[in-house]
Amino acid sequence: MRQSDGPGQLKPGEIVLDLGSGGGIDVLLSAKRVGPTGKVYGLDMTDEMLELARENKQKAGVENVEFLKGEMEQIPLPDGSVDIVLSNCVINLSADKDRVLAEAFRVLKPGGRLAISDIVVRGPVPREVRLSLELWGGCVAGALDESDYRAKLAKAGFANIDLEPTRIYRADDAREFLQGAGLDVEAVEAEVDGKFMSAFVRARKPLGAQGQRGKGNNAWK
To answer: Domains plus CATH for the chain?
Structure first.
């Protein structure tokens, strides 16, 4: 299931931002859902992905889409300019997740929604096991514990925070890779089994909130 089919539930006329939009597939799918009265921004930091995304836009003949070059930690959009922020397995890759969530909060309109898909950790995982798993799956890199994710969202100002598991990863999912990495699967099974999950992470910017916890950022006004 693609993230744009899951947590977003887009509506006609909405303005959408996809963080880490890559080749733009989710952006183009979202553009169909918001229709000609809506608009979708795709943000990516790499020229190669932006070039591919713009080629895909041209092939699709979609007009209500704009791809922006930039980083999630400094989104090149004004305060309160979008209805919903989407992201698919990208926020975990940031070294400054607090800043990313603060920026997402800033660009959302009051009442706007954050709807992302990411890997979330439940419970402690030994460092050596985690490092190996990061090589197995890129989304595992930088994955936050569920309680930490909730705390960071709340710190950014979000309310109505919800994490919905969509897949719980068992030790068998990474068994072959762990064995190839020289780890004793039976020895680490309890440390891995059920600790990582794919999840839809949803939250809302409270009505009346402005900018980052009430403090607007005027850099893009």
So the answer is: 3-118+140-168+197-206 (3.40.50.150)
Distance, in Å, from the CA atom of 200 to the CA atom of 88, rounded to the nearest integer, reads 9
Give the residue from 90, 69, 81, 75 showing the smallest Cα distance to 20. 90
The neighbour count for residue 95, using CB atoms within 10 Å, is: 8
CB contact at 8 A, 205 and 160: no
Alpha-carbon distance values, 130 to 22, 25, 144 (Å): 26, 30, 12
18 phi and psi angles, rounded to 5 deg: -110, 115
> Which of 81-95, 98-112, 165-179, 193-207 is predicted least confidently?
165-179
* Per-residue pLDDT at 218 exceeds 50: no
Q: Which two tokens stand for residue 140?
A: 């595992």
H helix intervals, 35-160: 47-60, 97-107, 127-136, 146-156
Rg (CA), the chain: 18
205 touches 158 (CB < 8 A): yes
Task: Give the start-end residues of each E strand in 20-128.
Answer: 39-44, 65-69, 82-88, 108-121
